[in-house]
TrEMBL record:
<feature type="domain" description="6-phosphogluconate dehydrogenase NADP-binding">
    <location>
        <begin position="33"/>
        <end position="191"/>
    </location>
</feature>
<keyword id="KW-0520">NAD</keyword>
<dbReference type="InterPro" id="IPR013328">
    <property type="entry name" value="6PGD_dom2"/>
</dbReference>
<keyword id="KW-0101">Branched-chain amino acid catabolism</keyword>
<feature type="active site">
    <location>
        <position position="200"/>
    </location>
</feature>
<dbReference type="InterPro" id="IPR008927">
    <property type="entry name" value="6-PGluconate_DH-like_C_sf"/>
</dbReference>
<dbReference type="GO" id="GO:0006574">
    <property type="term" value="P:L-valine catabolic process"/>
</dbReference>
<keyword id="KW-0809">Transit peptide</keyword>
<dbReference type="GO" id="GO:0005739">
    <property type="term" value="C:mitochondrion"/>
</dbReference>
<dbReference type="Pfam" id="PF03446">
    <property type="entry name" value="NAD_binding_2"/>
</dbReference>
<dbReference type="InterPro" id="IPR036291">
    <property type="entry name" value="NAD(P)-bd_dom_sf"/>
</dbReference>
<dbReference type="InterPro" id="IPR029154">
    <property type="entry name" value="HIBADH-like_NADP-bd"/>
</dbReference>
<comment type="similarity">
    <text>Belongs to the HIBADH-related family. 3-hydroxyisobutyrate dehydrogenase subfamily.</text>
</comment>
<dbReference type="Pfam" id="PF14833">
    <property type="entry name" value="NAD_binding_11"/>
</dbReference>
<feature type="domain" description="3-hydroxyisobutyrate dehydrogenase-like NAD-binding">
    <location>
        <begin position="194"/>
        <end position="320"/>
    </location>
</feature>
<protein>
    <recommendedName>
        <fullName>3-hydroxyisobutyrate dehydrogenase</fullName>
        <ecNumber>1.1.1.31</ecNumber>
    </recommendedName>
</protein>
<dbReference type="GO" id="GO:0008442">
    <property type="term" value="F:3-hydroxyisobutyrate dehydrogenase activity"/>
</dbReference>
Length: 327
């Protein structure tokens, strides 16, 4: 009996030791993560890191943007350089290429105070050439830069259902994936630095073309006397079906929970769509690739920005078409 009791005690001690080891290893991997850029996308992304137990050290060019994340438990610092001093894994989510260049290489930029071996993940949508420039600059400082732009809007960011399109050194992909899976449902390795941006730009161009086509089709059907909900149902069981028709319909009252049901508020702004299509246009020019519909889509969204639609969701193309025909 004493031998059995001794065996149980030893077993308990081993299990307790294993559990303690497991917990300490888990805590060790949850070292602070830097996050720079706390806009509509960055804030919910950083919140999901906090929810997964990662301490977050963050900053934003606009201090008022930091409050929500600070209230959720993040430490807020004054500059990207300060974040780089305290974290060896940093995620950036910024509006455009100039913002990325400034945050990484500016006078208070990440690379001013970066530690050797730091992993830098940029989830901004920018020119692939700028991603490559940042990777070279980071490498000179002994750090690793990866581009990881996202597909999915604010809703997907809040629900941790984003898709990350990752470009960079393949050996570092697992380290990046550990963090990105806290914020997204899909993390896809696309190839060398800049490949993530290339994939994102291609997807966004198709999305814009599809949305314009859906809006024109719905408008024509309505003008022909068809009920919009019926037309959407027919399209979605037919060969014309696409994401813009079945998941993000641009016609008010056809679907609930999308920007068209909320006066085109929220979602993905026309300004950002025009910016991303500009990136597609630039890369098409640089690679001498004909993008006839992509170029037209770029012009349409630029025109919308000039006509008061800049801050509305990009599905407001339907409203824009209706107003155009009324002139």
């Amino acid at each position: 009996t004493s031998a059995v009791l001794l065996g149980l005690i030893n077993s308990y001690q081993q299990n307790t030791h294993a559990t303690t080891m497991s917990v300490s290893l888990t805590m060790a991997s949850k070292t602070p993560v830097g996050f720079i850029g706390l806009g509509n996308m960055g804030t919910p992304m950083a919140k999901n890191l906090l929810k997964n137990g990662y301490p977050v050290i963050a900053t934003d060019a606009f201090p008022e943007s930091c409050k929500e994340l600070q209230d959720s438990g993040a430490q807020i610092l004054d500059s990207p350089a300060e974040v780089a001093e305290k974290a060896d894994r940093i995620i950036t989510m910024l509006p455009s290429s100039p913002n990325v260049i400034e945050v990484y290489t500016g006078s208070n930029g990440i690379l001013k105070k970066i530690k050797k071996g730091t992993l830098l993940i940029d989830s901004s949508t920018i020119d692939p050439a700028v991603s490559k420039e940042m990777a070279v600059a980071a490498e000179k400082m002994g750090a690793v830069f990866m581009d990881a732009p996202v597909s999915g809007g604010v809703g997907a960011a809040s629900l941790a259902k984003l898709t990350f399109l990752v470009g960079g050194v393949e050996e570092e992909f697992n380290a990046a994936q550990e963090l990105l899976t806290c914020m997204g449902a899909n993390v896809v390795y696309c190839g060398q630095v800049g490949s993530g941006q290339a994939a994102k730009i291609c997807n966004i161009m198709l999305l814009a073309i599809g949305m314009i086509g859906t809006a024109e089709t719905m408008n024509l059907g309505i003008r022909l006397g068809l009920d919009p909900k019926l037309l959407a149902k027919i399209l979605n069981m037919s060969s014309g079906r696409c994401w813009s028709s079945d998941s993000y319909n641009p016609v008010p009252s056809v679907m609930e929970g999308v920007p068209s049901a909320n006066n085109y508020q929220g979602g993905f702004s026309t300004t950002l769509m025009a910016k991303d299509l500009g990136l597609a246009q630039n890369t098409a020019t640089n690679t001498r690739t004909p993008v006839l519909l992509g170029s037209l889509a770029h012009q349409v969204y630029r025109t919308m920005c000039a006509r008061g639609y800049a801050n509305k969701d990009f599905s407001s193309i339907f409203q824009f078409l209706r107003e155009e025909e009324g002139q």
